[in-house]
Amino acid sequence: MPAVLASPGSGKVCDRGSRAIGDTRLPQELDYVATSWPHRGWCVHRRQRWMRRRTLPAPTPLPDPITTVPPITTVPVEFGGRVVHADVGGPVGNVRVTLLDGQGLPGGGRPAAEAYAKDTATSGGDGTFTLPLSLPMSWRFVYFQLTAPPGYDDTYQGFEPTTATDRPVIRMYPTLVIRPGESIEVRVDGGINVWCGFDGFACRRVLVAASPGDPVELEVVSHDSSMRMALGLEIPPGNWFPVGPDPDMSVRRLTVPPGGVPYVMCAGTATLTARR
After folding, report:
1. What CATH number is attached to the domain comprising 213?
2. Which of 153, 198, 218, 243 is least crowded, fewest Cβ atoms below 10 Å from its Cβ?
3. How many CA atoms lie within 13 A of 215 on its CB side?
């Protein structure tokens, strides 16, 4: 900016570092500020540019790709089926149906299914049920737990959401009860899903009716010698995960402790005998 000369008689006073005349703003608010100094009887004035001090907005933080969860798109799906007696085929009513697990990433697994705990259905007198849900679009397979009424065993059913309208027939075992001195016939069906603590093994629960504190020995004899039917004890729910080693399929005789729940393992038919 060129300097401006003022004569000594002009009435201007040399004031080094003064602000512009008549401007009451603070220096940091000015675009320019005036300075002056004496030179050989003259006052030299110069306007110098002053950088404004501005308060800039804080930058918007970028989303964390690890902790940021994208919104989950859901789709309505209506599941249904008909629950029947596994041996005689009659309808089973009063079966409570709940979502147990959903497979598909992101957002699958049992923890995600807990959000649907209040969404249940109950089979009617004809064994049918309908359960509408809004599920994540990414889920490719879902499992339902069918909680049985007294006299039956719980079972499980898997669905692909795209085939939910198929309304399958779901077979449910009647509870087997054996007493010391009895022999009963046991049929284990590989198409009926019962959880006994081991993935991928067909099994069927047996209740032992004995005096409290009285252990009972069970023996299983397969009707087909080529079928490796065996005996095992139920794994408590708290020990389900991680799933333990495969069951010992060589066990033909098993002592059931008081309170123990035995299972007959592997598909086929067999004779089960209980002894003291």
Report:
1. 2.60.120
2. 243
3. 5
* Alpha-carbon dihedral sign for residues 60, 61, 62, 63: negative
Q: Which residues span the domain enclosing 40?
A: 4-49
- Indicate the DSSP class of residue 237: G
Closest CA to 262 of 216, 212, 213, 225: 216
Measured distance CA(87)–CA(100) in Å, rounded = 25
Residue 163: inside a domain, yes or no?
yes
Residue 240 binned pLDDT confidence (cut-offs 50, 70, 90): very low
**What pLDDT was estimated at residue 135?**
85
In a domain, 56, yes or no: no
Q: What is the pTM of this model?
A: 0.69
Query: Do residues 134 and 76 make contact, with C-beta atoms less than 8 angstroms apart?
Result: yes
Token pair, residue 108, equals 């699958």
Average pLDDT over the chain reads: 78
Which residues, including other chains, have CB under 8 Å from residue 135's CB and lie 6 or more apart?
A: 74, 75, 77, 102, 142, 161
